[in-house]
């Protein structure tokens, strides 16, 4: 049975005090300092309330009710045939599997990598790649306004490290599977992902977040990305946590001159989820594409918050997010494009569209442009509506039953967003997830 607490902040502080000395990498002074700085920021910040503008539409009260404890050291049993993949059977692949935040080498398989490339767990990297971690970990987008980032840093123990050297391309997608096994008592895990793609290098990273069982758990993910000059990174995510799960994810990215970064998040799971994505376009000629699709029902709450910082001239950004909301579910989209004074010739585009399938479904959309330069081309838009009765009538007049007609229109609505995924195998897989969700809602 889930337990509740009246003092959630103190609960996390107490847990940190009990386990800090036993966290991995305890002999690395810089890592200890990093964790201590993280817990200090969390102690100072606490959880934001409705008066904090960035959290105006997302209440953390459901999360604060539970006393989460670190997941037990012995990870749950997960059968290999239950784990998702975007790779066709028999093709080379790289897969890292984590159960309740802990790396499972028995479920993981890393194929042959190009010379110099690193794909490993954070726990292993603390031994074999400590210099790389000291150089990059905790250096991208650290802020005093994100308590979940601070909390993740404090409890940092495992996760993923990807390092692609200059001029190297990893052809196969790197798949990372995070499994929440759930248990009788609420558990938490704080995985960390560090991706460093050096100049003119390329990689594809695909995250799968899935849940098993009926337990309540809290997954708090932080991803740091460093893309060198001319680098190309494709970054995709499917979030299918259990209906009792809480999923918080923060992505920060430092994008150098002429680099390209595209990010897509597919959200269908979780009781409360938030994806916060904040890239800085830190050189001329950067291309940044953020997109996603979300499908929520029941009492789910889904929040997508993005901030694209155009810090240099002649960069482009594109955002396309589409959502389907049913039942008493609620979705939030907050998208901000910042154009700095010297970022002339900026081209920014942002679109959020929502489809409301019930009278009690809700969308709060807040697109923003914060422009300090005068030679720019920026636009944004947000719409919300219902299924078109004329289109439904057209399909039904041709012998298609109501349920199938609705699903066809919903799938077509989401198709534009799914098309933003540039890797065909990933795109096909995500389309399959959408189809499965549609069938499950009307079964």
Automatic annotation (TrEMBL):
SUF system FeS cluster assembly SufBD core domain ranges (all copies):
184-413
Q: Which Pfam families match?
A: SUFBD_core, SufBD_N
Start and end residues of each SUF system FeS cluster assembly SufBD N-terminal domain:
10-176
Q: Which residues form a coiled coil?
A: none
Which GO terms of type biological process are on file? Answer: iron-sulfur cluster assembly
Query: Entry's SUPFAM superfamilies?
Result: Stabilizer of iron transporter SufD (SSF101960)
UniProt similarity note: Belongs to the iron-sulfur cluster assembly SufBD family.
PANTHER family, A to Z: PROTEIN ABCI7, CHLOROPLASTIC (PTHR43575)
**What InterPro entries does this protein map onto?**
Fe-S_cluster_assembly_SufBD (IPR055346), SUF_FeS_clus_asmbl_SufBD_core (IPR000825), SUF_FeS_clus_asmbl_SufBD_sf (IPR037284), SUF_FeS_clus_asmbl_SufD (IPR011542), SufBD_N (IPR045595)
Provide the organism lineage as a comma list: Bacteria, Pseudomonadati, Pseudomonadota, Alphaproteobacteria, Rhodospirillales
Full protein name = Fe-S cluster assembly protein SufD
